[in-house]
Amino acid sequence: MDDVKSQLRLDENEAYEETEDTGYHPKAFNEFERWFKRQTTIHGRRDLKDLLFKMLLSVVVIIVCMPFFMVLIQVGTVGMGVLLGSGPGQGLDFFLSTPGPGLQGGVLNAIAGTAYLVGIAMLVGVPLSLFGAIYITEYTRPGFMRSSVEFAADVLAGIPSIVFGAFGFTFLVIYLRIGMGMLAGGLTLAFMMIPTVLRTTQEALRQVPMSLREASLALGATKWTTTWKITIRAAFPGIITGVLLAMGRVMGETAPLIFTSGNNLGLPTSVTGPGSWVASMPYTVWSYISDPRNYVNDKAQATALTLMGMVLLIDLIANFISRKVTRRLV
Amino acid sequence: MAKGTTIEVKNLNTWFGRKHILKDISCYFEDNCVTGVMGPSGCGKSTWLRTINRLNDTVGSFRMTGEIFIEGKDIYAPTADVYSLRRRVGMVFQRPNPFPMSIKDNITFGPKLHGINDGDELDEIVETTLKKAALWDEVKDNLEQPGTTLSGGQQQRLCIARALSVDPPVLLMDEPVSSLDPLSASKIEDLIVELKKDYTIILVTHNVQQAFRVSDRAAFLYLGELVEFDKTAKIAEAPSDPRTEAFITGRIG
């Protein structure tokens, strides 16, 4: 203990001396040095413990963040090579051409396919979950009905995506005889996004102060007008954010599509039947990465990079909307 | 221009679930004057106010007996139309609650509901109601701005203007200044006095001084009972019930 104490006195003196000849250092550096000294100077056992713990935590943080950067570097370097290259199926061509013979072309089929699938999923899933959430939140009282729907949605949101895939296959493809293709794939994705959108919409509606609804009712508006013109309007940023986040999520799903959407090296030619089979970006990543040819593997990374970029963009938009309109209410 | 109307309450009892809120209330609100409803928190003031425009109907566990007549018509009669009732009974809430839309749209929302779609007519309504609410001069150049960007006091005046936009003879005010700073509050009090020329105003407040300053007649509600209902001056000087006296001297509530 005495040892530590003398050490401490020494440290203090040193620190004092350091701060005295400030004139030589640029200001910012000097401040950093002082800050660093303050962080690392040990004034006794408790400070030592504190410092060690701080170091431990920062190591953990580095480990936690590492996978993100590793993925980014791995996908980024290889993927960027393809996106910026000028060979066949590289550069702009990567987005604008279909794979063609030997998978040498771009992945337009996958990009268009994902657009079709997500489009169908949104077209079906968003209105359903929106009206569902409105009915549950605005038209029912808390009770058995409401809590059972909420419970079902929460359970659905937690179901592994491969189960949705299996369900889509047995119910849509086999039982309803829709057949594989964009319709079955899109509907399966819709099933996946419904619970998320329903719950986020509900949450957004719940955030709208009661007095806003009452003000509208007190002017002689009907319940429906109030819901449509006031409540939904006030909850709109929250609803949009939920929709966009769910969209970003289903965009990257492979499992629900394996048995439902089929695959296609060209663009779909019809809405039903074999012509409606579509590729999708995650599915393409999966099949390209398991290909023995190196240049096909590289295209898988480029597709993954594009997909990540798209999802990131959607998340940023969602974030922007939700942040920009937070000042809206009382 | 609206002229106030009378409201008669007969043997009003209300419950939320099993809780008996208002107990056998009968009274008569005169037209073109401000009636202040005082009472401690939780005594049923707001509930009483909200029975007059049937806003309590939206609460599931609400139940009531008794009758309320506006211009001689029973508003709880099975044939009564709740939407036209609410058009005739405006309401201002405790906290400013402008709709998340522009100032102009806040005002035109009500008239549009009731079928006024002509642009010029709507513009005129916007101007006259904002003038009545003493807000016109402050916002006339920014009518397209969101209503939520105004200050608290301005927002509350916007809410008053919104309530006036459908030209109701009756105006209910539920502690309209309790969330505002003193300056904004006194502006709105002045406004209330100004408005009573054309409207029957019922003002709920837990602030005795405010009730005395603003109202012509005053009611004192205690634990769901209408203890006293008389001219404000009379209540201020010589309350007839000991509980009223205890309340206005600050010993209860």
Keywords for this entry:
heterodimer; A: 330 residues; mainly alpha; MetI-like fold; 2 domains; 75% helix; B: 253 residues; alpha/beta; Rossmann fold; 6-stranded mixed beta sheet; 4-stranded antiparallel beta sheet; 10 helices; 25% strand
Detailed description of the structure:
The complex is a heterodimer of chains A (330) and B (253). With 330 residues, chain A is mostly helical. Chain A contains 13 helices and no strands. Chain A is 75% helix and 0% strand. In chain A, α5 packs antiparallel against α10 (223-251), α5 (108-139) packs across α12 and α6 (144-158) crosses α8. Chain A is flat. By secondary structure, chain B is of the alpha/beta class. Chain B has one domain (7-248): Rossmann fold (3-Layer(aba) Sandwich). Chain B contains ten helices and ten strands. Chain B has helices at 45-52, 82-88, 103-113, 119-132, 136-139, 152-164, 182-195, 208-214, 232-237, 242-248; strands spanning 7-16, 19-29, 34-38, 62-70, 73-74, 89-92, 170-174, 200-204, 217-222, 225-231. A six-stranded mixed β-sheet of chain B has the order 6-7-8-3-9-10, sandwiched between helices. The relative contact order of chain B is 0.20.
Could you give the topology of this structure?
The complex is a heterodimer of chains A (330) and B (253).
Chain A: H1 2-20, H2 27-40, H3 45-84, H4 93-96, H5 108-139, H6 144-158, H7 161-175, H8 182-207, H9 210-218, H10 223-251, H11 255-258, H12 281-289, H13 294-324
Chain B: E1 7-16, E2 19-29, E3 34-38, H1 45-52, E4 62-70, E5 73-74, H2 82-88, E6 89-92, H3 103-113, H4 119-132, H5 136-139, H6 152-164, E7 170-174, H7 182-195, E8 200-204, H8 208-214, E9 217-222, E10 225-231, H9 232-237, H10 242-248
Parallel strand pairs in B: 3-8, 3-9, 6-7, 7-8
Antiparallel strand pairs in B: 1-2, 1-4, 4-5, 9-10
Helix pairs in contact in B: 3-4, 3-6, 4-6, 6-7
Structural class of chain A: mainly alpha
Write down the CATH topology of the largest domain in chain A: MetI-like fold
**What is the radius of gyration of chain B computed over CA atoms, rounded to a whole number of angstroms?**
18 Å
Mean pLDDT of chain A: 87
Q: What is the residue-mean pLDDT of chain B, rounded to a whole number?
A: 91
Instruction: Report the CATH topology name of chain B.
Output: Rossmann fold
What pattern of helices and strands is seen along the backbone of chain B? EEEHEEHEHHHHEHEHEEHH
Could you tell me the strand content of chain B as a percent range?
A: 25-35%
Strand order of the largest sheet of chain B: 6-7-8-3-9-10
Query: Mind describing the biggest β-sheet of chain A?
Result: none
Distance between the termini of chain A: 58 Å
CATH class of chain B: Alpha Beta
Beta-strand content bin of chain A: under 5%
Oligomer: heterodimer
CATH-defined superfamily of chain B: P-loop containing nucleotide triphosphate hydrolases
Which consecutive residue ranges of chain B, at least 5 long each, have pLDDT under 50? none
Q: What's the number of extended β-strand segments of chain A?
A: 0
Percentage of residues assigned to helices of chain A: over 70%
Structural domain count of chain B? 1
